[in-house]
Amino acid sequence: MPRENVINSYVVEDSKTITDFFSFYSLPSSILKHETHKLLKVAYSYYNVSTTDRLRAGMEDILVIARDLGYDVFNALDVMDNSEFLEPLKFGVGDGHLHYYHYNWRMSGNQLSAKDMGIVLV
Fold first, then answer.
1. Which of 9, 32, 76, 78 has the fewest CB atoms below 10 angstroms from its CB?
2. Which CATH number, 3.20.20.390, 3.40.630.30, 3.40.50.2020, 1.10.238.10, labels domain 7-116?
3. 99-115 residue pLDDT tens
4. DSSP character for 28?
5. DSSP assignments along 71-117, one per residue
6. Which residues lie closer than 8 Å to 39 by C-beta, 6 or more apart?
7. What tens digit of pLDDT does each residue of 66-103 get?
């Protein structure tokens, strides 16, 4: 369920069936030593599911919603099917590197690509 300034969730309904679900959570950052701006309102892509092949369109909608709610930045990881919308929607590549440690996980020599991995940061 949506909670103001915590998480926003949206569904797409076809007749009486929910076909798509999009959400993002809020993680604001303080801006130090600036006269005017004190807070950077940042949205992070959370759970996004599309059964109708409208992932990109749904993300376009969610970006507009985030903008209208006053968010300054919208972040998304390059995991799962996110590559379908990251470049077309002009997401910039970050300048840092994220490293994950999956304990109790045996890879047996095979490497996962970003598309094969799903992870939610909270």
1. 32
2. 3.40.630.30
3. 666 666 666 666 767 67
4. -
5. -SEEE--S-GGGHHHHTTTTPPPPSS------TT---TT----GGG-
6. 28, 29, 30, 31
7. 999 999 999 988 878 888 898 999 998 887 776 666 66
